[in-house]
């Protein structure tokens, strides 16, 4: 550590992303799509290459329009970002500090407490209920700004939008991170017509097969989008590059491919859930592209290591409440059949 580093970063705990080995594993650890990006995305992305000598449109007008048309809002309600992580960062920078915390579920996306610490806000959380669902009453009853993923991160459980509407009735911000909403959950988008204190955060990393493209967006009232742009233009005006913007436009326009991929993931999730339960695993109800599960005879860390030895990479969190579990991203049906076979081998004590 140099003598130049500011005191506030000494001992600071950054976000730790999942492992990204370059090949060699059936990769079920970071909730990516097992399917390649859409052909339409490929064509537009390739065409954009020829103009990479020029700066992109800092407003990303073309993409904002495509998003607005797709989700039935106006382009002024849309802010596009370098991954949805950046949308979340802008939200914390604009609205959180020592006296304005965001309350989050104790088990949720690991970046929320990191952003919170980065802007000097107090870390405030509510525990999940015993069934691993978010405690909606705690969020409805408190007065702070709130943030949660729906479906929730790490668990996959989902909250009906009626409960979100209850939270919005108080004069505070409600941020709903819908990274996983396309895998069978209900979006809070219809609530935007009635509430101007709602921010919806989306990503193209999961259901649109563009994790490496780094594209996310926020949808909110025009005033909120303008405030988030204040942060963006003070930080990184050209935040979403030309190539990523082109790929995003193609991915959103190719609705047929999107439907095909999300349906395949939902089908593979149903198969995996049933097959894992048949092996004696406890599996949490999920509307996301992953399943949180635990084995009655083995700790999550041990199970992850055993799977890894057999070429299957899953995610394990050593945080309280999660250490018994593994989180398994839903891949293709073929990948999930291999995962189930290896799980069976481990449980039955087969040697490799
Ligand atoms: N929100 C949630 C709940 C997530 O799980 C993730 C991905 N790990 C993100 C946001 C960020 O996704 P990205 O930056 O790739 O859009």
TrEMBL record:
<dbReference type="GO" id="GO:0000105">
    <property type="term" value="P:L-histidine biosynthetic process"/>
</dbReference>
<dbReference type="InterPro" id="IPR015422">
    <property type="entry name" value="PyrdxlP-dep_Trfase_small"/>
</dbReference>
<dbReference type="InterPro" id="IPR005861">
    <property type="entry name" value="HisP_aminotrans"/>
</dbReference>
<dbReference type="InterPro" id="IPR004839">
    <property type="entry name" value="Aminotransferase_I/II_large"/>
</dbReference>
<comment type="pathway">
    <text>Amino-acid biosynthesis; L-histidine biosynthesis; L-histidine from 5-phospho-alpha-D-ribose 1-diphosphate: step 7/9.</text>
</comment>
<dbReference type="InterPro" id="IPR015421">
    <property type="entry name" value="PyrdxlP-dep_Trfase_major"/>
</dbReference>
<dbReference type="GO" id="GO:0004400">
    <property type="term" value="F:histidinol-phosphate transaminase activity"/>
</dbReference>
<protein>
    <recommendedName>
        <fullName>Histidinol-phosphate aminotransferase</fullName>
        <ecNumber>2.6.1.9</ecNumber>
    </recommendedName>
</protein>
<feature type="domain" description="Aminotransferase class I/classII large">
    <location>
        <begin position="25"/>
        <end position="342"/>
    </location>
</feature>
<keyword id="KW-0032">Aminotransferase</keyword>
<comment type="subunit">
    <text>Homodimer.</text>
</comment>
<feature type="modified residue" description="N6-(pyridoxal phosphate)lysine">
    <location>
        <position position="206"/>
    </location>
</feature>
<dbReference type="GO" id="GO:0030170">
    <property type="term" value="F:pyridoxal phosphate binding"/>
</dbReference>
<keyword id="KW-0028">Amino-acid biosynthesis</keyword>
<dbReference type="InterPro" id="IPR001917">
    <property type="entry name" value="Aminotrans_II_pyridoxalP_BS"/>
</dbReference>
<keyword id="KW-0368">Histidine biosynthesis</keyword>
<dbReference type="Pfam" id="PF00155">
    <property type="entry name" value="Aminotran_1_2"/>
</dbReference>
<comment type="similarity">
    <text>Belongs to the class-II pyridoxal-phosphate-dependent aminotransferase family. Histidinol-phosphate aminotransferase subfamily.</text>
</comment>
<dbReference type="InterPro" id="IPR050106">
    <property type="entry name" value="HistidinolP_aminotransfase"/>
</dbReference>
<dbReference type="InterPro" id="IPR015424">
    <property type="entry name" value="PyrdxlP-dep_Trfase"/>
</dbReference>
<keyword id="KW-0808">Transferase</keyword>
<keyword id="KW-0663">Pyridoxal phosphate</keyword>
């Amino acid at each position: 550590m140099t003598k130049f580093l500011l005191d506030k970063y000494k001992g600071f705990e950054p976000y730790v992303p999942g492992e990204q080995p370059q090949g060699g594993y059936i990769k079920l650890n970071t909730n990516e799509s097992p399917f390649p990006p859409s052909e339409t995305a490929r064509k537009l992305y390739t065409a954009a290459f020829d103009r990479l000598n020029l700066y992109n449109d800092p407003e990303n007008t073309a993409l904002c329009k495509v998003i607005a048309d797709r989700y039935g809002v106006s382009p002024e309600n849309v802010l596009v970002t370098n991954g949805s992580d950046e949308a979340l960062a802008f939200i914390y920078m604009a609205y959180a500090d020592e006296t304005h915390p965001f309350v989050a579920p104790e088990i949720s996306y690991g970046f929320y407490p990191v952003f919170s610490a980065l802007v000097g806000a107090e870390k405030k959380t509510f525990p999940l209920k015993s069934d691993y669902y978010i405690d909606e009453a705690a969020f409805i009853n408190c007065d702070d700004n709130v943030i949660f993923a729906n479906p929730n991160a790490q668990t996959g459980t989902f909250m009906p939008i009626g409960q979100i509407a209850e939270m919005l009735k108080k004069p505070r911000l409600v941020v709903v991170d819908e990274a996983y909403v396309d895998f069978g959950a209900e979006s809070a988008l219809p609530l935007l017509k009635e509430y101007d204190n709602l921010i919806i955060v989306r990503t193209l990393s999961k259901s649109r097969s563009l994790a490496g493209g780094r594209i996310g967006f926020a949808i909110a009232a025009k005033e909120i989008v303008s405030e988030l742009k204040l942060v963006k233009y003070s930080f990184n005006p050209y935040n979403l590059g030309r190539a990523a913007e082109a790929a995003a436009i193609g991915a959103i326009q190719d609705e047929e491919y999107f439907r095909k991929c999300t349906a395949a993931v939902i089908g593979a999730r149903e198969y995996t859930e049933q097959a894992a339960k048949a092996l004696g695993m406890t599996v949490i109800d999920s509307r996301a592209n992953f399943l949180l599960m635990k084995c009655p005879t083995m700790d999550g860390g041990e199970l992850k290591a055993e799977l890894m030895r057999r070429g299957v990479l899953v995610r394990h969190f050593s945080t309280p409440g999660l250490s018994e579990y593994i989180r398994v991203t839903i891949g293709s049906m073929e990948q999930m059949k291999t995962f189930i076979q290896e799980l069976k081998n481990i449980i039955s004590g087969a040697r490799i």
